[in-house]
Amino acid sequence: MNREMRRLQAKEEERAKKKRKEGARPQKKERTGFRQFVREVRQELKKVAWPSHQELTTYTVVVLATTTVLTLVIFGMDWVFKAGFIKILERAG
Prior knowledge:
By secondary structure, the protein is mainly alpha-helical. Helices cover about 80% and strands about 0% of the residues.
């Protein structure tokens, strides 16, 4: 290792020690009241892009239709596998 690399390494070690010392100090906790919390929540909720009534209805229908289709597919696969398994057991027995 040459001198320049040693100097860089020493500086990095000093910076790391300094950061550890700064991090060891207890952090002050910011305390807020309930009213301020509610005020901030309301401010954040005003920023939300809420869906329109039509979008909400469309999304709800899509979710219900997708859930129904997937439920029927899984039910069908379960029924087919059960029937196949029973036939395999009948042949073996």
